[in-house]
């Protein structure tokens, strides 16, 4: 039997499919004390700062670990221990921020929305007026749970007008959707190597307003997650405080070079939007409907209603599609049965077409569709 030795395409929101060039960048062992590696780190940080438009006002602090480590570090470092954080909540990643706040013993206020509804800036304004004790707002830009794009610019405007500070989890949007940290007065923007920048997973980073960071000494409850300390040490030594994920940083540098060659966030957004449109229209021919209405759908990941047929179950569907070389993602909603298909990574609409073909033939052989 013929067996392909290619990796399956990851239609997931990270880890995602990377280019060969990005993978090959990892075929080196470099010392963390070595000047070569230190200049890679410095270069990566300055590129990230440029992408966020924060060169004049912000600094970039990289951190070991998955994206959540950096979210927790940003909150623990930038929010004082007596701070109070408003969290607009429309999905799993917002809920994770609330959980982090409980772990850290920071006060929080939850502002709930439906899982298929974008956050309303107006509602944020009302909540801030109601509670003058709120010091920060923590917003998830693209809520990857359902795939919703939240209105970052409107929320940022409200937060600024009400004299509060803004922390943004832009994990699944940074690199694809333009964010200007200076213009939006964002205190801390959090993202990671293995999402729209198309690097491999293993490090996150926080683009922090420099003066906010300077006044955050002593806020953190954690040594490993203290961004202030990480930043201070890096400034002094030019090195990471603790063992850096050297291969991940090498891959990210190469991924960012390709990001720039492609044409930056605008070009990447165009490719992802193309992937997303192709996906939604091809899946419609199979009778598969997206969970979200078009205006709130981010071109990052699409949640589909599971087929209603009694011969459908996600596990066998997933395994059969995987056999044909495509990795799908389970749903992450609390109320409705769904599955998700990612539009991000080193893939094009041709790959999406092939994936939908595999989905179609699988559903036919499962007798879910004719
Ligand atoms: C991926 C993601 C994270 C981080 O998740 P990890 O599993 O820690 O990498 C955080 N927020 C959002 C919105 C994400 O999409």
Q: What's the quick description here?
A:
With 370 residues, the chain is of the alpha/beta class. Helix content is 40%, strand content 16%. A hairpin with a 7-residue loop joins strand 13 (329-330) and strand 14.
In helices, the fraction of residues equals 40-55%
Q: Quick check: average pLDDT? A: 96
Radius of gyration: 21 Å
Residue share in β-strands? 15-25%
Low-confidence regions: none
Q: What's the number of extended β-strand segments?
A: 14
Q: Helices and strands, in N-to-C order?
A: EHHEHEHEHEEEHEEEHHHHEHEEEH
Classify the secondary structure makeup into a structural class. Answer: alpha/beta
What's the helix count?
12
Q: How far apart, in Å, are the first and last alpha carbons?
A: 27 Å
Structure description:
The protein has 370 residues and is of the alpha/beta class. 40% of the residues lie in helices and 16% in strands. It has 12 helices and 14 strands. It has a 7-stranded mixed beta sheet, with helices on both faces. It has a 3-stranded antiparallel beta sheet with strand order 11-14-13, with helices on one face. It has a two-stranded parallel ribbon with strand order 1-12. Strand 13 and strand 14 form a beta hairpin. The longest helix has 21 residues. The chain starts with 8 loop residues before the first strand and ends in a 5-residue tail after the last helix. The relative contact order is 0.17. The model has no long low-confidence stretch (mean pLDDT 96). The protein binds pyridoxal-5'-phosphate. Pyridoxal-5'-phosphate binds next to helix 3.
């Amino acid at each position: 039997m013929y067996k392909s030795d290619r990796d399956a395409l990851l239609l997931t929101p990270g880890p995602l499919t990377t280019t060969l060039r990005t993978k090959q960048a990892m075929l080196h062992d470099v010392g963390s004390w070595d000047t070569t590696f230190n200049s890679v780190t410095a270069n990566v940080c300055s590129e990230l700062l440029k992408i966020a438009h924060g060169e004049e006002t912000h600094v970039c602090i990289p951190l070991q670990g998955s994206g959540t480590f950096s979210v927790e570090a940003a909150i623990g470092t930038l929010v004082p221990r007596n701070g109070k954080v408003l969290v607009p909540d429309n999905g799993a990643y917002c809920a994770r921020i609330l959980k982090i706040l409980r772990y850290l013993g920071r006060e929080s206020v939850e502002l709930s929305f439906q899982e298929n509804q974008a956050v309303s800036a107006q509602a944020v304004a009302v909540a801030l007026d109601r509670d003058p004790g709120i010091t920060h707002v923590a917003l998830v830009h693209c809520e990857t749970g359902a795939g919703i794009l939240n209105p970052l610019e409107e929320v940022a405007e409200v937060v600024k007008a009400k004299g509060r500070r803004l922390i943004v989890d832009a994990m699944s949007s940074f690199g694809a959707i333009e964010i200007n940290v200076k213009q939006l007065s964002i205190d801390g923007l959090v993202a990671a190597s293995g999402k729209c920048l198309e690097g491999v997973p293993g490090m996150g980073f926080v683009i922090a307003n420099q003066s906010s960071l300077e006044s955050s000494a002593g806020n953190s409850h954690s040594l490993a997650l203290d961004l202030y300390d990480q930043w201070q040490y890096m400034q002094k030594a030019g090195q990471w405080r603790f063992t850096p994920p050297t291969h991940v940083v090498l891959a990210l540098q190469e991924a960012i070079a390709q990001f720039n060659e492609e044409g930056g966030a605008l070009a990447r957004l165009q490719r992802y939007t193309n992937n997303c449109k192709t996906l939604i229209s091809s899946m419609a021919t199979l009778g598969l409907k997206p969970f979200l209405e078009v205006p709130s759908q981010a071109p990052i990941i699409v949640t589909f209603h599971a087929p209603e047929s009694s011969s459908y179950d996600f596990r066998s569907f997933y395994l059969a599609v995987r056999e044909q070389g495509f990795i799908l993602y389970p749903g992450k909603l609390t109320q409705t049965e769904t599955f998700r298909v990612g539009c991000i990574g080193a893939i094009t609409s041709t790959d999406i077409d092939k994936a939908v073909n595999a989905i179609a033939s699988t559903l036919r052989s499962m007798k879910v569709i004719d």
